[in-house]
Request: fold
Amino acid sequence: MNPDGLLTALTATTWTDTALEIVRELARAKQQFTIDDLRNLARIRNLEPPPNHGEWGGLMLSAVKEGIIKATQQYKPSRQKSNNGSPRRIWESLLFKQ
Reply:
């Protein structure tokens, strides 16, 4: 692997690890949430956007595999203007305690 490729791999791993901690934080605080909620909290926590926009979806799949969240069959319109109200899956926390 060339040095640029190694740097990209290290950056992606670091981003995913940090982002998963933010997913855990959100899952402890809210019973249900969308990717919009996660992206807002990530912004508040000063997490830079992922190197590839599609990594948000991979992050959610990693959170499912780690037993942090599960997918619901419910959707709601995105609150982000750039998404023009496109449907966003509602995720259910497996860490939330009332």
